[in-house]
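Exam prep: given the inputs below (a chain plus zinc ion), describe the expected output before reading on.
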Amino acid sequence: MNWILFLPWALLLLLMGLVVVLLWLALRLFSARSPLKGAFVLAIGTIAIACLAVFYVQLFIFRHYFQVPTGAMAPAILGNHANYQCATCAFSLAVGIPVDATGFSQERLRALVVPCPYCGGDRLLSLEPEVQGGDHIEVELGAEPRRWDLVAFHAPESPDKIYVKRLVGLPGEKLQIVGGDLFIDGRRLVKAPEELPDLWLLANDTRFYASAPKLAISAWMPAPDGSRWRREGASWFFNGESSGEERLEFGVSLSDQDCYNVYSQRAGRGNPDVQVRDVLIECSLGSFSGPGGLGFHWKHGDREVRATLEASGQVELSFEGTKASGRLSRPLSELKTVLFAFRDGVAAVLESAERPAVLQLAVDPEELASASPPREDLPCQVAITARQCKLAIERIVVKRDVHYRSDFRMAEIGTRQPMVLGADECFVLGDNSPNSFDSRFWRKALTRPAILGMARGIAWPPARRRAFGPGAIPAPASWSPPRRGSPSLRLWSSLVHRSGL
Ligand SMILES: [Zn+2]
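Solution:
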């Protein structure tokens, strides 16, 4: 029961009740021969009701709320799910439950024997005895969406259902998914590393080792063994003021598999053989001293990128003889964080996850989709390097970019062949690509008039309330707002339609 849909009507009843009370009070006062009081009550009452009406229109006429049952947009939007906690590292995470959850007894929910994605522990414990409902989404009706925005729309093949997905292809564009990336008119669509943080999915965080000090395995391993790298809880220390470069390698494979999907049908679970090469490494620096520096090393197949950060703040990125150099805002000893990213063919060094990159280098610049698609079966290797310094990294967080899947048998649109969108057609994808029913599968294209508006944020439950970030990349000028009927008609249509995904 989607009770939130009844809120507008409850509020409307309340407003009508208030009008009746006001009229009754004003009439009584008028008849009691105190017309001044009557007029005063009428004025105050009118203002109050007008304010309520504006509030009501703001909240419900231009907005629509619905509950998302499935996890196609996870982790940004959760569908039916259960909350679990790793028995080893105590990290909590949501696991998607199929929409028809009748078979999910307390017994079945209790424990999951799957590797914890953050520490490698082998058991997740259920935090509560029941399946939790999906997030309630607030949709701004009629808002003009841009590329990467979340849009709510009538599903092309079953218009009585409302879906929410991310808008990736605009009218008139030629779109293709190759090697996990999106190509528009033959060019790779590049997201800057600081943009669309929801699309960076957490892959590993050393913080979670802190509560599991005896854990034998660690995602990061010094190479060679016995080097000057040493771990203590969540932190890694390098003690080699006179040493050459020594590596700390990330040993976990960045695959498309996601714990959220373990209860899904086989096809939707994600494939451990599909490797992701787009990665973000965030180091929280505790201290740095010495004449040397630190660096990052990224390798995928025969492509290799090196980033070197000197103690002075000088930065260099190199790829196959191509070099780019820049400067950090201050010396390494004064920096709190440094980040390395490889995303959509561009390598970057950043000082903060929110601010633009200090330095960028295009590794696969604007290549044609068909020319040299990145191989999805090769693992990506990443390492942090240090030389001639004493260094403390308090925490290392690894994230990986969304990897759009094009290898499903039924996903034929915009995958093996480019898809040319008509003058009125859009292309949408779910963030949880292995488990999303989206434009890749639909024989009928999503048209502009079918778009209800933009999903602005999560309205319920309170613990998950938040606003979605704006699509940071502006749409080309040819994109105009979808045509639509009157807002009240839209509201009516959205209220009578049962929402689904
Ligand atoms: Zn764990």
